[in-house]
From TrEMBL:
InterPro entries: NAD(P)-bd_dom_sf, Sc_DH/Rdtase_CS, SDR_fam, SDR_family_member_7. This is SDR family oxidoreductase. SUPFAM superfamilies: NAD(P)-binding Rossmann-fold domains. It holds the Pfam family adh_short. Belongs to the short-chain dehydrogenases/reductases (SDR) family.
Length: 262
């Protein structure tokens, strides 16, 4: 499925995006790697197989007003894009009462508006080609919520609203949408998470550290993409929350109250 395709990955400089880049580089496809730090993207590229078929395109998802220019650049590398993997993002760890509204805004700008603006800028290309696949990495926190993550849950839930609509509007254009909802994955996500005053948590939390290794997560993610699943929930026991939310929401509420850690 991936052979010969042009696949654009955001958040490729670390964690899930880095593991994904390395796994896909073995699949004989052409890759475009994006995140903010060019040096880190070049490092990932150099550590990939077939690095001749890889381009780096640094940009900041928070600059969501300038996505047309970024998309034109991306298309110019290989003449087309087949798949955009919207993986870049940040998290948050703080109670609502101690979280500045500027933190909610930042999460919405990076996780929601940046991803939506990039996808909207690429959409005409997919429509013209009568083909394209948007893969968006949200979170189990995009399907149900937990304390200390209100801004993150808001932004990730919103992505489901947007991409479910996109999937419905573009069936006739053969455009696919796959939403990937990770549980805990052992990456830098909690270190980079914002606390209430907008500074970084700078600490690895236990749940994240004990989560799936990015390479294992990515294996499962690629299977879900190949099957063109609408949604995939990938993690350990925490994925049970999806079914509790649907069938026993009050039980889920009690479970999360008991188990939520800061
Ligand atoms: N690790 C987990 O437990 C977990 C759980 C659920 C969802 N996720 C999601 O997985 C995705 C990848 O995160 P990760 O776990 O690999 O974390 P990570 O911090 O290791 O990687 C995040 C990536 O996003 C990029 N990024 C952050 N802000 C950006 C910006 N303003 N502009 C451009 N790029 C930016 C970073 O540079 C990095 O490449 C995120 O969307 C995250 O919300 C992770």
């Amino acid at each position: 499925m991936f052979r010969g395709k042009v696949i654009w990955i955001t958040g490729a400089s670390s964690g899930i995006g880095e593991a994904l880049s390395k796994a896909l580089s073995k699949e004989h496809c052409n890759l475009i790697l994006s995140a903010r730090r060019e040096n880190e993207l070049k490092r990932v590229k150099d550590e990939c197989d077939n690095s001749g078929n890889i381009r780096v395109l640094p940009f900041d998802l928070a600059n969501y007003q300038s996505m047309d220019e970024i998309v034109s650049k991306a298309i110019s590398f290989f003449g087309k894009i087949d798949m955009l993997i919207n993986n870049g993002g940040i998290s948050q760890r703080s109670l609502i009462i101690e979280t500045a509204i500027s933190v909610d805004k930042k999460l919405m700008e990076i996780d929601y508006l940046g991803t939506v603006a990039l996808s909207k800028a690429l959409l005409p290309h997919f429509i013209e080609n009568k083909s394209g696949h948007f893969v968006t990495v949200t979170s189990l926190m995009g399907k149900f919520s937990s304390p200390y993550r209100s801004s993150y849950c808001g932004a990730k839930h919103a992505l489901h609203g947007f991409f479910d609509a996109l999937r419905l509007e573009h069936v006739q254009d053969n455009i696919k949408v796959t939403m990937i909802c990770p549980g805990f994955v052992n990456t830098n996500i909690s270190r980079n998470a914002l606390i209430g005053d907008g500074t970084k948590l700078n600490k690895q939390d236990n749940a994240t550290q004990n989560g799936l290794e990015p390479e294992i997560f990515v294996e499962r993610m690629l299977k879900a993409i190949k099957k063109q699943k609408f949604e995939a929930y990938i993690g350990k026991g925490e994925t049970k929350g999806i079914y509790l939310k649907r069938f026993f929401p009050k039980l889920l509420h009690r479970v999360i109250l008991k188990s939520a850690v800061r």
